[in-house]
Amino acid sequence: MTRSRGKAGHLSGYAFAGPFLLLYATILVYPLLLGIWLSFQRADLFGARTWVGFDNYARLLTDPTFHQSVLNTFVLALLIVPPLTVIALLLALALNRATRTAAVFRGIFFSSSVLSVTIVTLIWRFILTPDAGLVAEISQVLGREPLPFLSHPDLTIPSLAITTIWWSLGFPIMLFLAGLQQVPPDIYEAAALDRSSRWSTFWRITLPSLRRTLVLVIMLQTAAQLQLFGQAQLLTAGGPSGASRTMVLFIYEVVFGRWDLGYGAAAAEILFLLVLGITLAQYWAITRREAER
Amino acid sequence: MLSLELDRIRKAYGDTLVLDDVSLGMDAREFIAFLGPSGSGKSTLLRIIAGLETADSGEVRLDGQRIDHLHPGDRNVAMVFQHYALYPHMTVRENMAFGLRNARVPKGEIDERIAQAAKVLEIEDQLDKKPGQMSGGQRQRVAIGRAIVKQPRLFLLDEPLSNLDAALRTRTRVELAQLRQRVDAGVIMVTHDQAEAMTLADRIVIMNDRRIQQIGAPMEIYTRPANAFVAGFVGSPAMTLVKAALEPGEGPFARVRLGDGAQVETRVSRAGLPVDGPLRLGLRPESVRPAAAGTGTTEAEVLLVERLGDRTLVYARLANGEEVTAQDEGNSRIRMGDRIGLAVDGKAAHLFDADGTGHHAEAAA
Ligand SMILES: Nc1ncnc2c1ncn2[C@@H]1O[C@H](COP(=O)(O)OP(=O)(O)O)[C@@H](O)[C@H]1O
Ligand SMILES: [Mg+2]
Fold it and tell me: Phi-psi region for residue A118, left (φ > 0), alpha (ψ -120 to 50) or beta?
């Protein structure tokens, strides 16, 4: 746009951006600020509010239930994001061809991500339940005791991770497939003429070409899995005795179970800062390496 | 000595036949251009030689050895791709070293070959750049460099100049000509630009309609086109082709009558021509001269005048509606709409019979 349009031009610019800004303010900025404000209050769901300063944060620092939920959340993210990324990449490599079979499998792998969390947990309950689940049946046929996947403190977190990986595969696969489509086919031909083995073609050509996609997948998945909630609530209810309680589940229980709005808001702010900090750190680590190159 | 041999190569994509029994023999240090319109199968043939496509049948031999079953990397050929196909994440040096490393060439020799190629191509100060930081012309040089360091028996270039602007293209053409003197290998270049083919190649392979139409030295193709397609495709502006009929007579050379009744005495031997059946008379613009009305071989009306400075092209229409291109001096006075005579130089005329086969003037005795 030229400068000579002057004020009228600016105004019409704001008019175009206006609806979005309004929506952005009401559903993102306002709740964010409200949350921060609430975290400094003693507040319940009925509107009683008292200013308590950093009390809520101080309580969180000494609350072992909260500590456990933070630890669980990080362990889950670590158990989910790396394998999810690697599996999605391998599947995308396998499915990146123009055959009918590949198209069918692309559909199948993507279909799991369309399901709601309720259905996903139902499916995995069928698979994992010790008395009648699929895994239990199979172990019995093999003559072994079925494992209590959903009730043993050492098994609930891995079970949640597996369920989540299965559920979340579709989107990263699509991102990787899109990234693979961007690689010009003639550089693979050049590599063939350069006697490049499959292995070195992958490491020297495909993977560097997917760098940005890889970064995107890792950052998106980390941010998403740090907020894991539905599976934990529905599959294990955070149990046994908090062994699989995630941060969001903790917040949910505090707010809607104990009606302690301010305390929950404070926990939510800490989660927000953690997600923000980790994402920024990842971004920094990656862009710094890019500048070095 | 024969280096590359193609023996009855046939290739179809689905139901479409792209190459039909293509055969070709090439000398060890020859520069061959595949010239033809877009879609004529030039790239496909080049890719079959490189091993990036497999022929449905036929054999490819290099220095007497069959290579059509070999992996592309084992064929001792190097290719320069139309869009360069440089590895975007590697520096220029790494791009050139990649193939050599894979072939387990010793480190010292890799460095030496890269230094040498970089010097020849004047990209010594670019070696640590990434392709994304370079101009099209520089990338082109890197692509050529990557091929040179491999010291292959055969270079395959697919439209190497088509992505360069006009000035750079002419310069690179000269450099390619110099380069081929330095390398001890054959070169096949695909192009749809006849000027490129004419200036660079020892022999041109004209391709069209799934087949090789003619193989020959540039001037041979220009002066003795094997058929009507080659005659029309090579030369700019194109050779004029007008209907003609053989006049009965006794002399050794054919005398033909044009559609407007005018007669042309050619130097094409009567013996080789079909006794009857339609012919076409082929006339290069330089063998048709404008003349004062009533003095030439025939009469025509001027449709368009193209002044090129050193010469003038005159597009004219005969009485029966056929169009003929003539060439005049640079300072020609002819204007659109003029009625002029055309003086046809029968000694330089070509005849094409019903199936398109060319018949040419006997070489001057
Ligand atoms: N991978 C392919 N699949 C189907 N048809 C193809 C493929 N590659 C080329 N063709 C067809 O083969 C013909 C020859 O193509 P090509 O060799 O690229 O021609 P040129 O290089 O002479 O322009 C064209 O008609 C093209 O459409
Ligand atoms: Mg082509």
Answer: alpha
Q: Helix, strand or coil for residue B325?
A: strand
A112 assigned to some structural domain: yes
d(CA A159, CA B347): 92
Give residue A1's pLDDT band: very low, low, confident or very high (50, 70, 90): very low
Q: What tokens were used for B22? A: 């293509």
Which phi and psi (to 5°) does residue B363 adopt?
A: -60, 135
Residues B88 and B28 in one domain: yes
Can you tell me whether residue B48 is helix, strand or coil? helix
Read off the pLDDT of residues A223-244 as tens digits, 9 standing for 90 and up.
999 998 888 888 887 778 888 8
Q: Tell me the sheet residues that pair with A67.
A: none
Structural domain containing residue A284: 64-292
Tally helices (H) and strands (E) across chain B: 8, 21
Residue A126 lies inside a defined structural domain of this protein: yes
Distance (Å) of CA B269 to CA A203, B9, B322, B350, B351: 66, 35, 25, 11, 10
Residue written as tokens 């091993």?
Answer: B51
Contact A195 B78 (CB under 8 A): no
17-56 in chain B: CB under 8 A from chain A: 50-52
Residue pLDDT, tens place only, B272-323: 888 778 899 999 999 999 998 888 889 999 999 999 999 999 999 999 999 9
Question: Is A194 inside any structural domain?
Answer: yes
Three-state secondary structure call for residue B160: coil
Of B224, B253, B287, the residue at which a domain comes to its end is B224
Residues of B in contact with A291 (CB under 8 A): none
**Are residues A239 and A151 in contact, defined by beta-carbon separation less than 8 angstroms?**
yes
Residues B206-235: what's their mean pLDDT? 94
> Quick one: tokens of A157?
């977190």
Instruction: Enumerate the residues of chain A whose CB falls inside 8 A of the CB of residue B86.
Output: 187, 190
ipTM: 0.85
Give the gap in angstroms from C-alpha B106 to the nearest C-alpha of chain A. 16
Count structural domains, chain A.
1
**Whether B83 contacts chain A with CB within 8 A:** yes
Residue B20 shares a structural domain with residue B124: yes
Ligand 1, atom 5, lies closest to the CA of: B13
Residue B34, C-beta contacts closer than 8 angstroms, at least 6 positions apart: B42, B45, B46, B188, B189, B190, B191, B205, B207
Looking at residue A275, its pLDDT comes to 93
Q: Is residue A36 part of a domain?
A: no
Length in residues, chain A: 293
Strand-pair category, B154-158 with B77-80 = parallel
Exposed e or buried b for every residue in A127-147, given b needs 16+ CB within 10 A?
A: bbbbeebebbeeeeeeeeebb
CATH number for the domain spanning A133: value is 1.10.3720.10
Sign of the alpha-carbon dihedral angle for A181, A184, A189, A192: negative
Please tell me the total count of domains within chain B: 2
Question: What stretch of H or E contains A217?
Answer: helix A211-225
Q: Report the pLDDT averaged over residues A105-130.
A: 83
Name the helix (H) or strand (E) containing B260.
none
B306 and B201 in a common domain: no
Interval A263-285 mean pLDDT: 91
